[in-house]
Design goal:
This protein is an alpha/beta fold. 46% of the residues lie in helices and 15% in strands. α10 packs across α11, α15 packs antiparallel against α28 and α23 packs antiparallel against α25.
Length: 724
Amino acid sequence: MENLDAFMKKYRLQLNAQQREAVGRISGATLLLAVPGSGKTTVVICRIAYMIRVKKISPESILTLTFSKAGARDLSRRYLKIFGEKGAEGLRFSTIHSFALSVIRNYERLYHRRAFQIVESSGSIIRELFRELFKSYPAENDIVDIVSAITYCKNMLLSEEEIEEMKVGDVEFPKLFKAYEAYKRRHHLMDFDDMLKYAWLLLKKNPELLKIFTGQYKYINIDEAQDTSKIQYEIIRLLAGEDGNVFMVGDEDQSIYGFRGAYPDGLLSFKETYPRGEVLLMETNHRSTQQIVNAANRFIRLNKERYVKNMRTDNEKGVPAVHEYVKSVEDQYWFILKSVKNEGKETAVLYRNNESVIPLVDLFEREGVPYAVKEHNPLFFTHFIVQDIRSFVTLAADLSDFETFEKIYYKMNCNISRKNVLEAGKLRQPGQDVFEALLSLDEIPEWLVEKVENIRTAFKRLSAMSAQEGLDFIVWNMGYREHLDYRISCGYREEQLNQKLDILKTLAGRESTMDAFLKRLDTLQEALRGSALPRKADVTFSTIHSSKGLEFEKVFIIDAVEGEFPSMTALDDSEEGRRLFCEEVRLFYVGVTRAKRELEFISVGKKNSRHNRRPVSQFVRIFLGEKPPEAARRKSTGSVIAGGSLAQGKGFGIFDVSIVRKAELKDVDCSAYVPGAAVLHQGFGEGVILEIKKDMATIDFEGCGRKKLNIKVCVTNKIIRLQD
């Protein structure tokens, strides 16, 4: 490829053999699988420039699609920086949503029809419908979760039957989804996800419209293809045709956005979609040391449904990854603070859950240490638990605050009815203690009198407590734990609610009074709002999701304990649990490959919300080269994809239960598994059987609470055993 050599020399490009091959492949369908740190963005823009400058392909005929606006801007900026503006006129870098909108607008012009008006934010509509349907006010977290679920449904092209099975907290999601769709139809509206489906249908049903775009765009590039959803793949397939010039760049091992519809199966089925297509590899990691690359290579093989890739690097060997085990969550944060102060190098602290950063920001603010936060979502402060705790403390400070009392009276487990509250509101005197007003009601039963008096005494005690003591008192002595248990029974995930309490308790432990605690929450909320502004700092706080595409000299991965990373839902013995587990493997892989030279894991021995000691994450153990316990090994039921073809894979994964036929379970002896028996589960740890109904055992685990498991399946797959 003499022309390519001259092109590289002219622009001083340093490309290895695999990169050269990718840049030089212009025609036909191509899937380029690029490992972390392999320079995929460089290859994409070099290939575009090669097409324009050497192959004399018109820029107007090249369409480059990516997942986000930031990604599209970055591609455009980097192209212009290296190759300049000359010859780039008409070159299009776009999000798939923006492209879909152009399809709709072209349809309007071509057929003289008015399409739907685009809804900028669906949250306000959801909020209105929620109030109308359920006669209550949704929290901001609920709105976000509902919008996310709607996005998932549309991007994955779920059927009505599948949507009927969807659960979002304690919300009747199918009912709300139908109402939302009906509302948009009545008002001739569409949201951003509707744009994708509408554009797809228009291109399918209108050959003339499709011809406009296939005629203009002869070459299509897809960046970050692993983040593309099912509906987006369908749009791309229509544009490219069976033998079109489509160049997809991605890595199924880095597909971590399943919650919003990312569809790695689109990459895995590439050869089925494009039978004459070619799969290319870029396997050289230019970022990390050999120690990190080798361990990451070994770790990602836990997943079986993937292309075979052998990531390598020419970098120095480097130092081994380090694991630090600390006693408490507070020790974890102080350890990071001291490390950042002492080292002064470009460092990232990565975490599984967005809210993990809040105690970190609090500590760094108190100590005056500069930091930067990558894309923080401040919804923690509007969560119902945080708002409830605020209300308890506010009412304790002023027992006459009837408005606050109305927000939480039913969350105290004292059986005060709405009728009681309304009557007390009518009869009470200005400034009167709300509990005195309740006690003055006629026909109030004796048993309720005692409960009201007890809860009144509890509020008086609360007002005099320290912040940490008071928080515990609210949860465990004022009936709030029972309310949370009720919310869990309605669909909320226990581990998520406990995490809110853990964070609150950590923050409360740094304040002397409840009043100071509430003021600190306000201060932190403002600090995190301001963290969106660019900051110069040696340390960056980020979720692993937000860190994708970034690199740092040193990386800490915190909260590396079982049940947190991997998450508790990913440890569930179900098909969905196994799917989530595979995505968690990919997420961990993305996290460790952000590190250039140093990598450190921190595990916390004891969390705050009365958790017992939690085991170190199996991911950490495996990454560091430890073999999992024999009970954790399993036979692979999947396949490994090598070079675009299917081949049987072997090896072991963790907590992925082999499929067992019902007939095979008939002869399983579970007679020793009775109420009171102590058991050991490979994911949930130590527990005691509370109840067995048919084959379903209710087990109380020390670290993660009660779980219902099919005891025969667990025994057959050797994931649970009796303790000695």
